[in-house]
Amino acid sequence: MTTTERTARQAAGGRLTPPKRRPRSTPADAALLLIGACFLLPLLWLVLASLDTNAGYQTRLPEDPSLTNFAAVLTPELLLRPLWNSLLLSAGTAAVTLLAAVLAAYPLSRFQSRFNRPFLYSILCGTCLPITAIMVPVYGLFVQLRLLDSMPSTVLFMAATALPMAIWMTKNFMDTVPLSLEEAAWMDGASGLTALRTVVLPLMRQGLGVVFIFVFIQTWGNFFVPFILLLSPSKQPASVSIFSFFGQHGAIAYGQLAAFSILYSLPVLVLYVLVARGAGGSFALSGAMKG
Amino acid sequence: MGASKPFRQQLRLLPVVPAVLLLLLFLAAPVLWSFHASFTNAALTGRNARNPAWTGLDNYERLLTDSAFPASVLLTVVFVVASAIVGQNLLGLLIAGLMTRARKPVSAVVGTAVVAAWVLPEIVAAFAAYAYFSKDGTLNQLLAGAGWSGADWLYAFPMVAVVLANIWRGTAFSMLVYRAALADVPQDISEAALMDGASGWQRLVFVTLPLIRSSIATNLMLVTLQTLAVFTLIWVMTAGGPSNTSTTLPVLAYQEAFKFGDIGYGTAIASMLIVLGLVFGIAYVRLLKGDKR
């Protein structure tokens, strides 16, 4: 089932048939709340420790809750430069990925070709490649090509790893834009790529946003790739620089570690909420999974 | 427009080129390089780093004789089966199922809590899990509150700790898949079964599960692949230790390549993982193909 059919049916179901649902039950509520509490527990330490200047690995209410930890990490070296690097990496990767994905998805979605099916299936296979497994060979390759410790080459590599899923999602979103509108543009003499830019892309803005944010979140949170490929501290993103709270200064600054973690996590949490609100929960996923 | 028709059709494929180049250069090339390097004694530093020599199947022979590799394969299987196939998959299905019966606001709140663990950057999730399972961490505090003495989870039961942490981290994916799948199950079919006197379990086993079986298969495949590739969580929580009792294949490949500087042996392990990933990938594609008739 395509995304259009699905959304159309959900919309129809929501409007036409009266909401005839089974009565909501209390045991299910209780069980769910218990599960939810279990999922929140590990995050409790993060929040409490960030407010506690004498924090350890114990979860406890801070005796003297303050924002001292947040103030302490709010320096260019500790917080701002790593976050800026994270932003460069993530935005760069998402932009490169989206551009390549849109260009690739257009012919795949619009023109029949013998090349389409094998290409799409190899792409799908590519989404299954365990990226952690290829980091050792990628390191070896980067050493030989002298690409190590370079932001642009890291961005290109991360874009390549995100590309299979992005092409797949973009094609599915593009398939939902009716062909008739574009044919009209062709009649008026627009070339394929002009039609893509002026007709198709504006109609799939939401889908493009989903793909961009999807890649952005993934790159922002990625630890292993920059850890292996970026060596100098001035280029490292927040996911790697977080280790400066260990060792270097002797004792581990738990409170600052927690405060830094929260500041570093906030952007992706906000972005996720944006996608989930704007696109209705499983919409993004249906773009990814349905063929 | 003098170009022949086939040529113009080829021209239409031009926009695919940037994507293909990226994929060839940064995905296909490392994979091929991995297979090549696994037949050499390439090293991280020193003479063998500049001029690796061809050593044939030496690295693969070492895989079979080195006791760390079979142990690591076993740990990887345990990790994937316990945390992905059983843990994330069943818990995700359970949560999605409960959500169809629970009140809307409860579902929304719990859904957010489950998803939060999944959206967090992996390094933050790993630190949170480390703190939770550490000797004087939240879990032991809770157990002490209930009158039980806990254990030093990360040292005494490292696999239990990383399996639970991975369930915590990854269940959201299965939950989202199953929520979408269950929303597609027509209500009237389930109601018809109810009329025929089917119990809750019977409806689940004979009506609902067969209807969402393609989602189940897809989900199993994807969570298996994601879990196979988990590195950061284990590396932060236990670093594969103590004495390799939680060293799954990605951690082993990393250790051999970067800690012991043996890129050749590291890529041999990586190559096995890549092959495993490709096998799953092909199986996944066949599954989707069959799904579309």
Q: Give me the CATH architecture of chain A, please.
A: Orthogonal Bundle
Helix content of chain B: over 70%
The number of domains of chain A is: 1
CATH class label of chain B? Mainly Alpha
β-strand percent of chain A reads under 5%
The CATH topology assignment of chain B is MetI-like fold
By CATH's scheme, which homologous superfamily of chain A applies?
MetI-like
Shape category of chain A: globular
Morphology of chain B: globular
H/E element sequence of chain A: HHHHHHHHHHHHHH
Q: Provide the residue-averaged pLDDT of chain A.
A: 81
Number of helices in the DSSP assignment of chain B = 16
CATH topology of chain A: MetI-like fold
**How many strands of chain B?**
0
CATH architecture type of chain B: Orthogonal Bundle
Share in helix of chain A: over 70%
Largest sheet of chain B, in brief, is: none
Biggest β-sheet of chain A, characterized?
A: none
Oligomer, anyone? heterodimer
Descriptive report:
The complex is a heterodimer of chains A (291) and B (293). Chain A has helices spanning 3-15, 26-50, 68-73, 76-110, 116-126, 131-144, 151-175, 179-187, 192-203, 205-221, 224-229, 238-241, 254-279, 283-289. The longest helix of chain A has 35 residues, at 76-110. Chain A is 72% helix and 0% strand. Chain A has one domain (46-55, 62-289): MetI-like (MetI-like fold). With 291 residues, chain A is mainly alpha-helical. In chain B, helix 2 crosses helix 16 (263-291), helix 6 (104-119) crosses helix 10 and helix 11 (187-195) runs antiparallel to helix 12 (200-211). Helix content of chain B is 77%, strand content 0%. Chain B has one domain: Orthogonal Bundle (MetI-like fold), CATH 1.10.3720.10. By secondary structure, chain B is mainly alpha-helical. Chain B has helices spanning 5-12, 17-37, 47-50, 58-65, 68-101, 104-119, 122-133, 138-145, 153-156, 158-184, 187-195, 200-211, 213-228, 232-237, 249-259, 263-291. The chains are: A mainly alpha (291), B mainly alpha (293). The interface between A and B is large, with 96 and 102 residues.
